[in-house]
Design a protein that fits this description.
Elements: H1 24-38, E1 45-48, H2 54-61, E2 67-70, H3 74-86, E3 93-95, H4 100-103, E4 108-112, H5 117-130, E5 136-142, H6 148-155, E6 158-163, E7 170-178, E8 187-191, E9 194-198, H7 210-218, E10 227-231, H8 237-245, E11 250-255, H9 258-270, E12 277-281, E13 293-298, E14 303-304, E15 307-308, H10 312-323, E16 324-335, H11 341-347, E17 351-356, E18 360-366
Parallel strand pairs: 1-2, 1-4, 2-3, 4-5, 10-11, 10-13, 11-12, 13-16
Antiparallel strand pairs: 5-7, 6-7, 8-9, 14-15, 16-18, 17-18
Helix pairs in contact: 1-2, 5-6
The structure holds S-adenosylmethionine (SAM).
């Protein structure tokens, strides 16, 4: 199948008529960077934040080879691989972590701007530290998700920032002249006995989200068995809290976000429980066997990238149900407006309300 942006799919991520695989910002980044990409040798192009492969595969379709790519969500990585397979573009790129090897000596860096300024700061520091001094960065996004402060963050690591005209409500910032680079390191914040560490862009950063706080207040004082699962762990705040409260407990924490996994490992280390908290990058609990867990805690996601979509959490309920043993429990916090109770009853089993405040509900669902 010949590559075209129109034929790009989000699969295996959630697909729905209102969720797109590529948009005008991808097209503007590609158009603005076309001449620069054509001018550099194989291996000199890096892509950061590609949603489903538009930037990487359009570059590859135009002859780019050995493209290095970082995508924070594992679903994006899987979709890029699936799209590459369909278009016969496998082998043109390599997926990497957000580290020096991703950008070392790169001459052209395409960035889909993250929503979080701290996540952008991590990218700017890394590129400025390790890319070629000649590097040109094309960082673009939808105007509604961009702010003038993004230019300031780019200026922290680059001498010159040019801003393109807006096209179809998208814009690209072009940065040259790297300086003052640094490797991304999780930031830390203390909350009483608990320290939370976070790289930029991870849910709630180094703070503790109010929904998470509500869940932590209402988790049971006894955990059945010797292991708990923190599904969609983010910074690992729930995993670390469980490990601190229960000194014999082993905690299995997982998240599909690379930044979340790095953060959760740092949080476990900062709280002295790294020997009992295992952190895995995974799409839901795909690495876990059926009926292998006796307790799962979950503060489910309700976003897919920038889009709020209520189809995301039920997928996690289904996988939690698969992994729970019969009679084992899923403890969940959710925004009361989302009315997840019926879905939990249907997908997991009998569901009891434990607590409810103006905004959140905590429930326990027992696997039938
Ligand atoms: C609302 S946050 C909760 C994070 C953390 N448990 C807390 O309470 O602060 C939801 C998390 O779900 C993760 N996530 C989204 N889709 C996922 C998936 N398919 N598999 C694993 N984690 C996922 C996101 O990366 C995010 O960290």
């Amino acid at each position: 199948m010949t590559f075209s942006l129109e034929a790009l799919r989000r699969w295996p991520d959630v697909e729905a008529p209102d969720l797109v695989a590529t948009d005008a910002a991808d097209r503007l980044i590609l158009d603005e960077s076309a001449a620069a990409r054509a001018d550099v040798a194989a291996g000199a192009v890096t892509v950061i934040g590609d949603a489903y492969g538009a930037l990487t595969l359009a570059s590859a379709a135009e002859g780019g080879r050995s493209i290095r790519v970082h995508q924070d969500p594992l679903a994006g990585e899987h979709a890029l691989a699936a799209n590459a397979e369909r278009f016969g573009l496998g082998g043109t790129f390599a997926s990497r972590g957000l580290d020096a090897d991703l950008v070392r000596d790169a001459r052209v860096v395409l960035v889909r701007l993250p929503r979080s300024l701290e996540a952008l700061r991590d990218i700017v520091g890394l590129v400025a530290a390790h890319a070629s001094p000649e590097v040109v960065v094309f960082a673009g996004g939808r105007v509604k998700h961009m702010s003038p402060t993004m230019n300031d963050v780019l200026r922290e690591g680059f001498d010159r920032i040019d801003v393109t005209h807006a096209r179809q409500k998208s814009r690209v910032l072009i940065a040259r002249g790297p300086h003052d680079g640094h490797d991304p390191l999780p930031r830390a914040e203390r909350h009483g006995a608990l320290t939370v560490c976070a790289l930029g862009g991870v849910f709630a950063g180094t703070s503790i989200d109010i929904g998470t706080r509500f869940l932590l207040e209402h988790l049971p004082s006894q955990i059945p068995g010797s292991e708990a699962v923190d599904l969609a762990c983010g910074t690992g705040v729930v995993a670390a809290a469980l490990a601190l409260r229960h000194p014999q407990l082993h905690v299995y924490a997982c998240d599909q976000s690379a930044a979340a996994v790095t953060s959760a490992r740092a949080t476990a280390t900062a709280n002295g429980v790294a020997d009992r908290v295992e952190v895995v990058r995974d799409d839901m609990l795909s690495a876990r066997a059926d009926a292998s867990a006796s307790f799962i805690a979950l503060n489910p996601p309700f976003h897919s990238g920038a889009a709020v979509h209520e189809g995301i959490a039920p997928r996690l309920f289904v996988d939690a149900a698969r992994v729970l043993r019969p009679s084992a429990e899923l403890w969940t916090v959710w925004n009361s407006a989302l009315r997840y109770r019926a879905a939990l009853e249907r997908l997991v089993g009998p569901t009891r309300q434990i607590a409810r405040n103006a905004k959140f509900t905590v429930t326990v669902s027992t696997r039938r």
